[in-house]
Each structure stands twice: as C-alpha cells, then as structure tokens.
Amino acid sequence: MKDKLLGKTLKELEETCLKLQLPKFTAKQIADWMYKKGVLDIDSMTNLSLKARQALSERYEVGIVKPLKEALSEDGTIKYLYQYGENAFVESVLIPDKKRLTLCVSTQVGCKMNCSFCSTGKQGFLRNLSAGEIINFLRSIDEFDEVSNIVYMGMGEPFDNYDEIVKSIEILTSSWGFALSSRRITVSTSGIIPKMIKFLNETSCHLAISMHNPFHEERVKIMPIEKRYPIEHVCDELRKYNWYGQRRLTFEYIVLKGINDTYYHAKEISYLLRGIEAMVNLIYYNSTPEFPFSAPSPKEMEEFQKELESFNLSTTIRQSKGQDILAACGLLSTKQLSKNK
C-alpha cells in the first residue's frame, strides 16, 4: 500500500524528496499541485521531471478519497459521507450563505465526549483523523477552490486530536498550502482547557466554546467533560485574553426546549461571560427519536434571545440548514453504521 502525500507539510515533503534523492525545490512544486491546482495523481504534476514522477509514484500517491455519498438539501447545503476504513464513517457539510461558502469538517471517527444530545457521541470512539484525512474533506470536493471558511465543528472533539488539527491548519493557512486566512477558520471545543490555552497561544484562528448549559449540576448531566473541565474554569481562562481585536470568541448553545432556556439560564450565562467580549450563538436542536430532547419553537427561541440581550449579551440565532438531509453532526454516519450492522 502506497503512502499518501496529501496532508504533508512543506517540511515533510522536503524530507520525502530528500529520501528519493530529488531536488529540495520539488517539494514546493508538489505542494503547489496538491493544494492549489488540485491534481488527483502524481502523473499530472507536469513540471516535475519524468524521473521525479516515477520515483514518487513507486512509493506514494496523492491520496484523495472521494465521498461515499452526497446529499443535497433544498437550501443548497451538501452533506458528504466518507469511509476512511472499515466501519470508519465520517462527515463534512458544505454550507452556502450569501457571499460565504463554509465547509464544516470532522476531526475524529466517533467521539469520546459522550454528550447526551449528540449522535456522534453515541457511536463511541474509533480513532483520530490524520491531517491528510481532514484536508481531504476540502480537496475531495469540486468546490474546494471556492470555499471561503472552514469550521472544525463536525464529528469529534478537535482538541482531543490537537496535533493533527494544528497541522491541518498549517496546510490551510501557509502560502505554500491553501493560503487561507486564519481569520477564516474557527475551531470548536467542549472545553479541554490545556489544549485550549495552547491553541490560543499557537494560532490566531477563531475559537468556539460548546457551552449548552451554564450550571455545573445541569451541564455535567449532558456533557461529562464538565466533571474535569467545568465551564466556569473555561471562562476564567478565556477572561485572560483580549477579545476586542479581530479574533472572535463564540459560545455555542444548543437550545433544548424546557431544559436550558429559562431566565435563570440567561442570567447565569451573563455571569459566566462577565468581562469577556463574545457572541452567544443559539442553535436549534435537531430532534431525533433516539434522544429525549426537543427543539424550541421560533417564538420560544426569540424569547430566550431577548432574555440574553436583556443582560447585554451579543446573541445570534443560527438558522438551521440541511434538516432534510440529516446535516446535524453524526446523523448520516450513524445511519450508515446501522445499515452495516
């Protein structure tokens, strides 16, 4: 089985060329063909010598994996299902929105966090994705050169796969890679504090925190990570950083009807976010029969937004997209796994 070139940094490509006794500049040419020009095979890298292409082809391939399935929503959202090995099904979502085209990528096959409202968590954890597999979500679609934003909000906890997500960000943002601005990338976490601090110090990408409940006793019931990394401690760390520049901080909040949408929740959120310049992003829960939760009505969602705004919190309501194609995290892969059993 050949090794994949996709997902290698420029330094790693240079090391590969050195092993094959190829000129160092060949690495930059390979990166250009893979990440900018979008070739699918080594033979298409026509400014490489025939000898170089033959040497590479003996041991390597570009390594693009096309989606196993695609589902197109009425609103233009596209859900992609990939198979990265036996029973290793992962998802990405392409979301059109006015002048932006956002790709939501996964970072793990399954997830260890076991949040009680999430289909991915119920799959259990199989393995981390490599940087190449994460980059493949972008490179494998026809619209790869039209994507304006990347969000690490798919299957898995990104900071539980820290090294590979940072490596993928290097490929996305480097001049030899996709040359995407770091301000076009948002990484979400449920609150792994040590990796969150490391991320804030090592990158300039945006950060999103999955809050979903401000009360420790309630959050721990739906998000087990609260036991180790309480949301209060997460906010204490975030308060140490300056959020008044271009870097954005968002708190993601899936609204569960009658559970986390009261005045008291709004008041506690305002207390946790005191002194932090951030946006609260309210998200409609995607109701599924396997979970005992339901989504609020539009009127109830707007009322909760008003409660938050009464405490001077900047708040938005994320418009649900792709509901007709199971676009919520983990739904399509869970369905595929059920078919295979």
From TrEMBL:
InterPro entries: Aldolase_TIM, Methyltransferase_A, RlmN_N, RNA_MTrfase_RlmN, rRNA_lsu_MTrfase_RlmN/Cfr, rSAM, rSAM_sf. Signal peptide: none annotated. The keyword Magnesium does not apply. One of its GO terms (molecular function) is metal ion binding. One of its GO terms (biological process) is rRNA base methylation. It is found in: Cytoplasm. GO terms for cellular component: cytoplasm. Its EC number is 2.1.1.192. Pfam families: Radical_SAM, RlmN_N. PROSITE patterns: RADICAL_SAM. Its main location: cytoplasm. Keywords: 4Fe-4S, Cytoplasm, Iron, Iron-sulfur, Metal-binding, Methyltransferase, rRNA processing, S-adenosyl-L-methionine, Transferase, tRNA processing. Residues 97-324 form the Radical SAM core domain. The keyword RNA-binding does not apply. Its cofactor is [4Fe-4S] cluster. It is an enzyme of class 2 (transferase). This is Putative dual-specificity RNA methyltransferase RlmN. It comes from bioreactor metagenome.
